[in-house]
Amino acid sequence: MNIGICGLGTVACGVINVWQRNQSLLTSRAGQNSVITHIGARRDNPACDTHAYTVSRDIFAVVNDPSVDVVVELIGGIEPARQLVMEAIAAGKHVVTANKALIAEHGDEILAAAALADVEVRFEAAVAGGIPVIKALTEGLSGNAIESIVGIINGTGNYILTEMREKNRSFEDALADAQRLGYAEADPTYDVEGIDAAQKLTILAALAFGTPLDASRCYTEGISAVSVADMTYANELGYCIKHLGIARATKQGLEMRVHPALIPKSRLIANVNGVLNAVAIHGDAVGPTLFCGAGAGAEPTASAVIADIVDISRKMACGSKVSSDVSAAPSEPQASVQAALHRVVPITDIHCAYYLRIAAANRPGVLSQITQVLSDADISVEGVRQHEHTVGAHTHTNEPVPIVLTTNVTLESNFRAAVAQIEMLDTVLQPVSIIRIESVD
């Protein structure tokens, strides 16, 4: 089986290096002699040795090479990646890609074309780097009705939040360090504003629940508003702040949301730090499971790419019909929620517990005003913290006094309305900081 690689960046060089190092092992696992023969790249990369392969400066030369059986798309972005993949499928070639944006935005179109052409499209590396979470959904957990997926699926954001918590660094300082170390791009928007995580969550939700591949349906909120103060108060309350992607089946429909969340420090996923990723999947039969590992990097991502290539090679070697089986939902959710799963629940309709940090005037009765608003909205307060000064102390200052509250579970729209009322109080001096609380059971 001949393999053509399009692109020669970090991941492509990782694939080449791992393939060269493990050639004999991969051949035995693939069931036939599978070799890289053709590479399409605009420039060379000293991180890998390509002298044994045909190298073309036109990436489409790989697709047009009649001897290539599998095209590995590692150029990233939407175009020309989409055109490249569609032309490969039309030419009867199997495709392996690490391109999360492409699958999240055009996956339905690509998989439909692959089904018609009777070829396979694999994208394990598109989500969580080297963690085999897609194979877990489509194979290992295929006997389960998937109830929820909760993941730390962006290593950059996880690194920033870890630095803020462990070293008392501001968001801006931790981001600058992430950029210096190469964890964050010069323009970090996709990572810190949750867009990257939303694309990955869209793919996982499609596999688990059979929903369309459409990232625009996912509620997305970034981490740039999280402060060191929030980290400190969360720790005092027994929580850790993580940037989570959540897909959960409910009777009302499918929750799909990416946002910061307080999670109990006792949960395993709360202790996944730095650039690591973790995905917690809850199945009706297996119960809670956790997959953790490197979410990015040359060789961890190459591990996932090569696993897809080996799977295709093994099927070809044994004469099995090769099809894009990952396009089918691997599990059927419970009958009570099946009909509703094509409806994504608006963020205002979810039920959640909340953390509030309020900058209040140092006057008597401020706390009672705030809790009265919550009580009037039928929102029960679970805990209260007053910091730095005693609210209502004899010595009045103009410096805001932070009040931290946590609530029990309530409807988000109801909670937002209550927060709007709190912000209208003349004793509340700044917009209220809000973070959702997730148990991650």
Structure description:
It is built from 15 helices and 17 strands. 36% of the residues lie in helices and 23% in strands. It has 3 domains: 2-132 and 298-327, NAD(P)-binding Rossmann-like Domain (Rossmann fold, 3-Layer(aba) Sandwich); 133-294, Dihydrodipicolinate Reductase, domain 2 (2-Layer Sandwich), CATH 3.30.360; 351-437, 2-Layer Sandwich (Alpha-Beta Plaits), CATH 3.30.70. Helix 1 crosses helix 12, helix 7 crosses helix 8 and helix 14 (366-376) runs antiparallel to helix 15 (412-423). The strands form 2 sheets. Strands 7, 8, 9, 10, 11, 12, 13, 14, 15, 16 and 17 form an 11-stranded mixed β-sheet that branches. The protein is of the alpha/beta class and 441 residues long. The chain is elongated, with a radius of gyration of 24 Å.
Keywords:
17 strands; 11-stranded mixed β-sheet; Dihydrodipicolinate Reductase, domain 2; alpha/beta; 441 residues; Rossmann fold; single chain; Alpha-Beta Plaits
Q: How would a crystallographer describe the biggest sheet?
A: 11 strands, mixed
Count of extended strands = 17
Give the CATH topology of the largest domain: Dihydrodipicolinate Reductase, domain 2
Distance between the termini: 44 Å
Would you state the CATH class of the largest domain? Alpha Beta
Helix content: 25-40%
Low-confidence stretches: 323-338, 390-395
Number of helices: 15
Mean pLDDT: 91
